[in-house]
Amino acid sequence: MKRKWKIRNPQFRAFLYLLPALSVIAVFQFYPVLKSFFMGFYTKFDYLTDTVEAVGLDNFLYVLKDPEFALAMKNTAVFAVISVPLGIITALVFALILNSNIRFQKFFRSAYFLPFVTSMTAVAVVWRWMLNKDYGMVNALLSVLGMPKVAWLTDAQMTIPILIVLSVWKGLGYKIIILLAALQGVDERYVKAGRMDGAGSFRRICYIILPILRPTILFLSVTSLIGAFKIFDEVYIMYGQKPGPLQSGLTIVYYIFDKFYRHWEFTTASAAAFLLFLVILFFTLLQFLFSSERRKS
Amino acid sequence: MRKGKKMVTVLSYVILAAGLLWVSLPFVWMVLTAFKSAKEVLSMPPKWIPSVWQWENFKMALQQVPYARYFFNSVFTAVMVTVGEVFTTVLAAYAFAYIPFQFKNALFLVLVATMMVPGEILMIPNYITLSNWGWIDSYKALIIPWCASIFSIFLLKQQFESIPISYYKSAKINGCSELRFLFTILIPCSVPTLASIAILKFINCWNSYMWPLITTNSEEMRTLPVGMAAFSTEAGTRYHILMAFSILVIAPVIILYLFTQKYIVKGVSKSGLKG
């Protein structure tokens, strides 16, 4: 007779089901979160033997006083503050158009999404070539319009604008899909009621559709802000592993990467990473605050 | 009134077309460059259409870069990560959706909080862990840290919970074991969600750059993005070869995207609705 092997205790059963996922998460997510928090406080640390000889606030003080970190913060903040609203407004315009009775809706949506699935590495290499001063496409287009050449990649003034355009380009399709999903959830009756009351399409958008989309726009703002604060790959590759001309593309993650991977200053890098975490935590809490306030009202 | 409406429609198409042009120009420029000769790439003023389409550029790209090796690394890593994640996700989502256990809510909260922490912050301690284990420069380092995703667990848990509980009860009454219920009923009912999770994971893994960059140091272990970035600094002015190579890097994902768009769109819009 075959005996059935069964575990009755739900605690133990749940544990077995969770074990594979939790063991990976515990080692590579739980532990590093705590570890990176503590590492910021290690002032004498040998990572090979994992021994800590002294602790203190020196790393945080060093990072906060480091003019390079201040520059990285400033560059990243300027990038985020411009690229996030610009990206959302652009996507909103396209989503609203696509949501109206338009032909080839699916075709346009697929095309706009293409940059999102392509590797940032390849994209950054292509953009670097496009922006080449002598042989690039952008200057060729400008010369057709009779405008002078621009030294896109060596002019420090141009770095942040280029990164903004690139990020809007890359994220457009993602935001359009999310906005379209939300727009399809808008109850037609509200829009119809607005039309009957004589509201034109512009006013219907401003006073009926946008307020309904508010939670989605808030979600997009927060996730894009977080993404913007983590910008790295595109800078690192487009500027040949340098932080742009005159450090104009020095971002927070670039700073962390540089300290960690180039100078092997693990503890300084951890302190900087922890400061980045605080910034991101702030935005996340902001989202919670806004969305729970909405639910109450 | 009618005239105004027509104007709006025309304007809409103009905006859409302009957007299309903007989105596709880098791709167009990449493809055109990939077929030019070395001389045409550096011609002044730039030539748009190659006079002779140079298919050899692709052959040269394959010769100058160990593409096959990079390709294998990328495919192997992405497939293993995807399989691993789907495996751990299915089991964990099942536990969350169907097994009543103690501290479920507490665990849930801890996981949500962990999900908020950006991956860049985990990078340094994870690097130390892996180097202490002697895993640097191995497939283990590329694969195992990514084999579980909290977000996917939540997504699949929601999907499992949307399946009527009566299925579970009747399966239990008929003596169906839990694992059998999971594999013969829950999973077949959740194929679209699983497909979204798997495809998005595959693409993410294929495109990831920083992690393979820091955890590999030999050329044999490089994935396509890392190999591409390395080649881009060696290539100099051989932009035609570089562009041919970059087509070879992004083509697999674009082909995958074209065939599985439905699931990608679904997965992405779901990630938005959560907010």
From TrEMBL, chain A:
Topology in membrane: Multi-pass membrane protein
Record's keyword annotation contains Transferase: no
Gene Ontology process terms (BP): transmembrane transport
Annotated compartments: Cell membrane
Transmembrane segments: 12-31, 77-98, 110-130, 205-229, 269-290
One GO cellular component term noted in the UniProt record for this chain: plasma membrane
Domain ABC transmembrane type-1, first and last residues per copy: 73-287
Record Pfam families: BPD_transp_1
Family membership noted in the UniProt record: Belongs to the binding-protein-dependent transport system permease family.
Protein name: ABC transporter permease
Species annotation: Faecalimonas umbilicata
From TrEMBL, chain B:
Residue intervals passing through the bilayer: 12-35, 70-99, 106-129, 141-160, 181-203, 239-260
Pfam families for the chain: BPD_transp_1
Any one biological process term the GO annotation gives: transmembrane transport
Membrane disposition: Multi-pass membrane protein
UniProt superkingdom: Bacteria
InterPro entries from the UniProt entry: MetI-like (IPR000515), MetI-like_sf (IPR035906)
Keyword Membrane: yes
This protein's GO CC annotations: plasma membrane
Protein localization: Cell membrane
Keywords: Cell membrane, Membrane, Transmembrane, Transmembrane helix, Transport
Major localisation: membrane
PROSITE patterns recorded: ABC_TM1
Domain ABC transmembrane type-1: 71-260
Family per similarity comment: Belongs to the binding-protein-dependent transport system permease family.
Protein name as annotated: Carbohydrate ABC transporter membrane protein 2 (CUT1 family)
